[in-house]
Amino acid sequence: MFFVDTLETEGLGNRSYLAGGAASAVAVDPPRDVERVLAAAAGRGVRIGYVVETHIHNDYVTGGLELARLTGARYLVPASARVSFDRVPVEDGDRFAVDSGLELRALATPGHTPHHTAYVLAEDGREVAAFTGGSLLIGTVGRPDLVEPRLTERLARSQHASAHRLAGELHDDVRVLPTHGFGSFCSASGAAAGGEATTIGRERAGNDALNQDVDVFVARMLAGLEDVPAYYAYMGPVNAAGPAPVDLTPPRTADAEEIAQRLAAGEWVVDLRSRTAFSQGHVAGTFNFEAGGGLATHLAWLIPWGKPVTLLAASAGELAEAQRELVRVGIERPAAAATGEPSSWLRPGQGLRSFPRADFAALKRALDAGEDVVVLDVRRDSERAGGYVRGSVHVPLHELRERAAQVPAGPVWVHCAGGMRAAIAASLLDAEGREVVAVDDGFDGARSAGLTVAGAPA
Question: CATH: 1.10.10.10, 3.60.15.10, 3.40.710.10, 3.50.50.60. Which one for 3-241?
């Protein structure tokens, strides 16, 4: 009897898998923090005999090389992927015995990357699951524009063909187990694409890649692609070179004087506390990326790559979890850190800054009262296309640092779809001395308040 264990990496919107039988297993697209995979294998009482990559990842740093080193497993990587480390090069059709009666078959599925390879698991000759990586996802496919702009249309066509190959070669009951698509920006349908479980049959019935003519599919996919997170440019090269082992030892403790010096030097000092706590009192110049709120993706997207970062946290546990999240996207070591109450992060004579939080009903009252305020929408283009606050200024969060000067003068009420990105944006503007109000409310609140206009503005 075979098993498949799913390891969620929610902050990145990805899944890794451990699959095997009574004695041995294969790890698929493992996360950077490989202890989770080792713990899953120990819980099953199995040896990891293979570590496989469906492709060289562009959205996170893999733990594959380190996991193979620690376990002695054979490291399977598509043969045409250009890498700088020893591995077992995998060609289309290669087969690998995982355990008694369990076999893994490589199936070339280019599109998300030129070398992308899916792996099909068979038990006693019957194929039962397909690890589809960034090819066939749940209800969509992986985006084809992460490698080279000139290859995008060609890869989109390859993605369509690969989806059809999977559907053509596998029977309806085969489970589809993708790596991306659970909030990952690698999904062609945006960060919200995904779902819990699917099969080839379900995808055959509902996936556009399997139900649209190739030209229609490619045109619609390319029209719907949004900006690629800036840090993606660094993930592929790190993975191709072979990532170094993770160092999760606690960073050096910074006192109030050092925090002030790092801020004065233009370094990033990131407050990990909740957006509520941050708004009530924080060190001037710090940015709020709350732990557990998409910390890795948003911080890695916004921070100038390689700039030192100091982390401020409410507790040692919060700090440790943030470190773990950040190494997954290549932010290796904080320059320093501090924990405790924000008052302990202040030099003598300094005071804490604060700003108000509100909901859309409060914004409506302010506008009805004739207050001269700026409404700033930091959602993505696709979100704004579904409706926006009348008269609002639109600057997507990932562009705000470069475009902050374009935000008109006056008090800024900043909103997103739920409050977390608005809190980040409010902290960025607050650090520049702007008067801000963070709208901590779901966008349905804007509709209920009668503030919205349907459809994107011209």
Answer: 3.60.15.10
